[in-house]
User: Fold Dolichol-phosphate mannosyltransferase from Rehaibacterium terrae.
Amino acid sequence: MEQCPVLSVVVPVHNEQANIAPLIDEILAALRGRLAFEIVYVDDASHDGTLAELRRLQRRTPELRVLAHQTQSGQSTAIRNGVKAARAAWVVTLDGDGQNDPADIPRLLDARANAPAEVKLFAGWRVQRRDSLGKRLGSRIANAVRRRLLRDDTPDTGCGIKLFEREAFIDLPYFDHMHRYLPALMQRAGWKTVSVPVNHRPRTAGRSNYTNLGRLWVGLADLRGVGWLIRRSRRTVVREYPAAEEASP
Assistant:
């Protein structure tokens, strides 16, 4: 009988053929023998050999599941579809470019084991960025603006490695690029979040699907939208009363 996973590793990819096998091998090395897990790759309509490589690796990796978008829909949609398909109660996400280190997954799990139940998100914090100077400066500015406007007390929301409760994620409002605002959205829902220092590595194959300018314009519009959601949020504690017991004769 197949064992139900206690952790789902969700990896969105677009044109990352050369990075698939090395990253899967690192995930297996980090988690096999530690807990029951599954790996859910979501191919966002790649036009290289990404999907064929995933299908090839499925034959020798029983933990691997493969989902494929029929039309390109973006990283947030890929993450959301992967989380919806996940069978575990907790999910960890990784970027498919290999810059996140799967060896950090146990560190996030240890942080969860020592945290109170109201913490539903453990966000990776790339203390030592391994990107170009332009990308580092762009991220630094974007993070400063976001923290000032959203007050989410998170130093790095752009890090792809995150651990969160599946149910809490599914309950969040969905929109394109939402994956960059998960701490603020979790806090809006009434949950706490924690940032955990993690490793960051240079890209060794392929090229980035984003540009600093493109992220800037999209980010400004998103910030306004997320700020509106936070201002409009209403939370209350709900108590359900059991049916009254009949009086004893």
Observations:
- The chain is about 40% helix and 15% strand.
